[in-house]
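Hi R.,

Here's the chain you asked about this morning:
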Amino acid sequence: MMEGLELVSFEMISRHGSARSSFVEAIRAARNGDFALAEKKMAEGEEDFLAGHQAHARLIQEEAAGKDVGVNLLLTHAADLMMSAETLKIIATELIEMYKKQGAR
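And here is the predicted structure, written out as tokens:
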């Protein structure tokens, strides 16, 4: 049975994976000129991203309190996914703005 670190890692993986998917969908919507859908997908992605980030913050708080949370490949993958979701969020925001400006011409 999974517990502790594994559950938090899988929560991060699930939430950040969903966030990344939403950010990609937002880019595609903006590319097609559907900015309402793009904003909706960005909001959905942000919600998942924040939930995953909160799971990560719990681990940081535990470690700061002196608990050895341990590090394993699963947590490393979860942290990598978190960072790639954050990067994609930034890129998606910029691309959506670019598509909006192109459409305004």
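One quick note: Residues 5-59+71-104 form a domain with the Methane Monooxygenase Hydroxylase; Chain G, domain 1 fold (CATH 1.20.58.80).

Cheers,
M.
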